């Protein structure tokens, strides 16, 4: 919905009640609000209606292959980083029926899927995630064959961004230049302010739709002190990145070393379980499955999230191209950080750290790049 | 109406759970009965029709000299032969005998061991005759079983992915129990198909569906050890319904005899 930055009267301040008013105003306009909630010992993205649904006073501690919820010492509503879910699950559903067919006397009838009935508002989408969304927009909407289902879901989206106040131990958006500050691509952006003993949110407006919503909820103009505190939040986040990735010459670094011994080494650890690709907010691969009814009277086609870590993914006539795990890991990281530039004009990585945290054995994309880069500095590999 | 394909369901050493999955189909059972002629399915009916059978579903492993002969006869009578379940595809829980002395088991279990004539190993059907498709699981998923039958009836490849359980967890939106709770889970090395039931209830995967296509148990084993699993835990967790499956066998042996 954002149609480019519109000039506004400046930032506003809302309090906790104002945040509830925002949720109510979105609901009144027919949006289903999706935001962070605690479920199954993690912070996931799920429907919510009330401020009380948010993970108040919780944070997450993350490292390679490890994620734990912990209590904070305050009442922050957004005091954690990104979790196991990404927003792609709403725009690019993990399992989606594409069509059904029924046999008729003359042949068969095709039953198309109806467009989605819901309009979503995403509450708390961060700068790295807005970049991921922009990348998936290019993948699904760019070129001569836009994805209709993605377009239908994407069109009416209302985006309430969150200026990130809590990076995790696996975050590296600063290295990828995707955060922590969200500067465009949203309708409204919130910065949670906890200083001065008053819990409030600085609101930036990014679109006319955002302006209209803000006008409908109680707010006041932001003062200099509010703005300074909001800047300090982002400065602090930027200074506390858990990981770094040196991106200099990364396109060539990976493309030029397909036979590096590190691929063999990482394959001893990699499970080829596909978790990294499932949690990645930019990974977009899918497969289709066709099913027929026992009687042969009907059939249907389903699209499912797929992964370059499965054997079927590279199955051509006669067998899989990437039989070994080392080939599959190399394919994934090389596409993500290198050939993505050739294909889509940007990196495929936004530095959110999900692939590091949610790898069951903690394989670290930043560490793998570092290992290859540093080995080239050794005289033996010159 | 053209002649319907004739279906047979055969039992070898097994608990019957997999053929029960077929009876469990309830709603779909009528359309199955319409689509095929049930020629041999003793758990459902005493009435049997002679072979050849267009499709044979085989449950169970080979544990006796008689069964080693009988499976050849079943193969001879079957145009397509699909094995279903951990017993038929990996030897089942009874493949624990492969790691021990069978005489000791027999004398411990039976009052008159001299009546027992059994092989010293439990082996999957594919170790004896050519198999057209293997459907893993303990027990098999009834929807997957119907998918395999439908696929063979229409002459297409069954849509049975061989990747890990993790994809099913992620598609369901279930946060990883291993990462978020430190719960040891076999999901990353286990074949998808169950729908990731256990992690959906906050528990680790037990590996009922056997090894996924390219499993890496040693790496997962090291992770389990970091989470506090002992050598004995690892030895035992890979030695259940799919103990005879090669990648699980190797990993269990790597953690004790």
From TrEMBL, chain A:
Name a Pfam family for this protein: Fer4_22
4Fe-4S ferredoxin-type domain segment(s): 259-291, 340-368
Q: Which PROSITE patterns match?
A: 4FE4S_FER_1, 4FE4S_FER_2
Known EC number: 1.12.98.4
Instruction: List the keywords (alphabetical).
Output: Iron, Iron-sulfur, Metal-binding, Oxidoreductase
GO MF term list = iron-sulfur cluster binding; metal ion binding; sulfur reductase activity
Q: What is the protein name given in its UniProt record?
A: Sulfhydrogenase subunit beta (Sulfur reductase)
Q: Which organism is it from?
A: Methylacidimicrobium tartarophylax
Organism lineage string: Bacteria, Pseudomonadati, Verrucomicrobiota, Methylacidimicrobium
From TrEMBL, chain B:
User: Any idea which UniProt keywords this protein has?
Assistant: Oxidoreductase
Q: Which InterPro entries match?
A: Hydrogenase_assoc-protein, NADH_UbQ_OxRdtase-like_20kDa, NiFe_Hase_small_N_sf
Which Pfam families does this chain map to?
Answer: Oxidored_q6
Q: Where is the NADH:ubiquinone oxidoreductase-like 20kDa subunit domain?
A: 15-151
EC top class, as a word:
oxidoreductase
- From the UniProt record, which GO molecular function terms apply? hydrogen dehydrogenase (NADP+) activity; iron-sulfur cluster binding
- Gene3D superfamilies assigned to the protein according to its UniProt record, in alphabetical order: NADH:ubiquinone oxidoreductase-like, 20kDa subunit (3.40.50.700)
The record's EC number reads 1.12.1.3, 1.12.1.5
Instruction: Quote the protein name from its UniProt record.
Output: Sulfhydrogenase subunit delta
Q: Which organism is it from?
A: Methylacidimicrobium tartarophylax
Name the gene behind this protein: hydD
